Design the sequence.
Protein backbone atom coordinates (compact mmCIF):
# COMPACT_ATOMS: atom_id res chain seq x y z
CA UNK A 1 0.00 0.00 0.00
CA UNK A 2 1.28 3.46 -0.98
CA UNK A 3 1.76 6.09 1.65
CA UNK A 4 0.19 9.40 0.81
CA UNK A 5 1.27 12.67 2.28
CA UNK A 6 -0.69 15.81 2.45
CA UNK A 7 0.97 19.01 1.37
CA UNK A 8 -0.13 22.15 3.05
CA UNK A 9 -1.55 24.76 0.74
CA UNK A 10 0.68 27.80 0.65
CA UNK A 11 -1.04 30.74 2.25
CA UNK A 12 -0.47 34.14 0.78
CA UNK A 13 -0.15 36.62 3.58
CA UNK A 14 -1.31 40.16 3.03
CA UNK A 15 1.22 42.77 4.11
CA UNK A 16 0.38 44.56 7.33
CA UNK A 17 -1.13 47.99 6.83
CA UNK A 18 0.03 51.02 8.76
CA UNK A 19 -1.45 54.49 8.94
CA UNK A 20 0.73 57.31 7.65
CA UNK A 21 0.80 60.90 6.48
CA UNK A 22 2.54 61.28 3.11
CA UNK A 23 4.07 64.41 1.65
CA UNK A 24 4.63 64.57 -2.09
CA UNK A 25 6.47 67.01 -4.34
CA UNK A 26 3.43 68.48 -6.06
CA UNK A 27 0.22 68.78 -4.13
CA UNK A 28 0.65 68.41 -0.41
CA UNK A 29 -0.22 66.00 2.36
CA UNK A 30 -2.22 62.78 2.34
CA UNK A 31 -3.47 60.57 5.18
CA UNK A 32 -4.27 56.86 4.88
CA UNK A 33 -3.10 53.27 5.15
CA UNK A 34 -0.19 51.75 3.22
CA UNK A 35 1.17 48.23 2.86
CA UNK A 36 4.60 49.08 1.41
CA UNK A 37 7.70 49.37 3.57
CA UNK A 38 9.70 52.59 3.75
CA UNK A 39 12.36 51.00 1.50
CA UNK A 40 9.76 50.15 -1.16
CA UNK A 41 8.29 53.66 -1.05
CA UNK A 42 11.73 55.28 -1.33
CA UNK A 43 12.67 53.05 -4.29
CA UNK A 44 9.43 53.76 -6.19
CA UNK A 45 8.77 57.31 -4.94
CA UNK A 46 5.15 56.21 -5.11
CA UNK A 47 2.73 54.33 -2.88
CA UNK A 48 -0.80 52.92 -3.01
CA UNK A 49 -2.82 54.53 -0.19
CA UNK A 50 -6.02 52.89 1.06
CA UNK A 51 -8.69 55.25 2.37
CA UNK A 52 -6.53 58.17 1.23
CA UNK A 53 -7.63 61.61 2.44
CA UNK A 54 -6.12 64.86 1.15
CA UNK A 55 -5.06 67.14 4.01
CA UNK A 56 -5.74 70.57 2.58
CA UNK A 57 -5.70 72.61 5.80
CA UNK A 58 -5.40 71.56 9.41
CA UNK A 59 -5.08 72.93 12.90
CA UNK A 60 -3.23 70.85 15.45
CA UNK A 61 -1.34 71.29 18.69
CA UNK A 62 1.53 73.29 17.19
CA UNK A 63 0.77 73.27 13.48
CA UNK A 64 3.76 71.23 12.26
CA UNK A 65 3.53 68.04 10.21
CA UNK A 66 5.20 65.91 12.88
CA UNK A 67 2.70 67.25 15.43
CA UNK A 68 -0.10 66.34 13.04
CA UNK A 69 1.23 62.76 12.86
CA UNK A 70 1.72 62.59 16.65
CA UNK A 71 -1.40 64.32 18.00
CA UNK A 72 -3.75 64.75 15.05
CA UNK A 73 -6.33 67.40 14.32
CA UNK A 74 -7.72 69.88 16.82
CA UNK A 75 -11.42 69.21 17.33
CA UNK A 76 -13.76 72.04 16.33
CA UNK A 77 -11.09 73.79 14.21
CA UNK A 78 -11.61 74.68 10.56
CA UNK A 79 -9.81 71.57 9.27
CA UNK A 80 -10.20 70.84 5.54
CA UNK A 81 -9.77 67.09 5.00
CA UNK A 82 -10.93 65.26 1.88
CA UNK A 83 -13.17 62.22 1.62
CA UNK A 84 -11.48 58.80 1.64
CA UNK A 85 -10.65 57.06 -1.64
CA UNK A 86 -7.99 54.53 -2.62
CA UNK A 87 -5.21 56.31 -4.52
CA UNK A 88 -1.73 56.01 -5.98
CA UNK A 89 0.39 58.90 -4.68
CA UNK A 90 3.47 59.70 -6.76
CA UNK A 91 6.43 61.96 -6.08
CA UNK A 92 6.59 60.83 -2.44
CA UNK A 93 9.17 62.78 -0.44
CA UNK A 94 8.04 62.20 3.18
CA UNK A 95 6.29 59.45 5.15
CA UNK A 96 5.23 60.04 8.76
CA UNK A 97 3.88 57.19 10.89
CA UNK A 98 0.63 58.19 12.62
CA UNK A 99 -0.02 57.46 16.30
CA UNK A 100 -3.26 55.91 17.57
CA UNK A 101 -4.13 59.29 19.13
CA UNK A 102 -3.76 61.10 15.81
CA UNK A 103 -5.64 58.37 13.92
CA UNK A 104 -8.62 58.79 16.25
CA UNK A 105 -8.84 62.51 15.41
CA UNK A 106 -8.80 61.84 11.66
CA UNK A 107 -11.44 59.12 12.04
CA UNK A 108 -13.64 61.60 13.94
CA UNK A 109 -13.24 64.37 11.33
CA UNK A 110 -15.83 64.41 8.53
CA UNK A 111 -14.79 65.15 4.98
CA UNK A 112 -14.99 68.78 3.88
CA UNK A 113 -17.27 69.69 1.01
Sequence:
Amino acid sequence: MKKTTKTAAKKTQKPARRTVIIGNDKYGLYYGDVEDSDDQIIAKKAVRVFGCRHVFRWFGGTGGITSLAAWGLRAGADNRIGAPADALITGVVNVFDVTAEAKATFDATPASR
User: Anything to note?
Assistant: Helices lie at 38-44, 65-71, 100-107.
